[in-house]
Amino acid sequence: MNDTAQQRPIRVLLAKPGLDGHDQGAKVVARAMMDAGFEVIYTGLRQTPEQVSRIALDEDVDVIALSSMAGSHLPFCRKLKPLLEANGLDDKLWMIGGNLPAQDHDALRELGFKGIFPTGSKLDAIADYIRENVA
């Protein structure tokens, strides 16, 4: 863990991409991450890739996490990746959770989303993954 991370809690951006209007699961995850000691910035619904990238940059987060239930995760992530890279956020931990068919996991990993948590993932597993992967 670097000096900055030791001086403050791990900061997690939890974003709801695109037209996905289902955020109950995201709110449960946000509460669990706060209970685990992380500082969580929740974007609310219907964020564009540009908004997610800007908020991640403005909030100086350690983790950029998406919650996707609408099936548009691959096109969204393909648009988000170059924006995150252009803003120098490619050294952050990128994660995604939600309705993510197994056949899409490799494509998400290739885009840079290292943490993939399909619906039904354990909240403790998400928190442990963040702790283990934020350097």
TrEMBL record:
The keyword Metal-binding applies. Keywords: Cobalamin, Cobalt, Isomerase, Metal-binding. The keyword Magnesium does not apply. InterPro entries: Acid_CoA_mut_C, Cobalamin-bd, Cobalamin-bd_sf. Its cofactor is adenosylcob(III)alamin. CDD domains: MM_CoA_mut_B12_BD. Signal peptide: none annotated. It comes from the Bacteria. Residues 9-135 form the B12-binding domain. This is Methylmalonyl-CoA mutase. It comes from Aromatoleum petrolei.
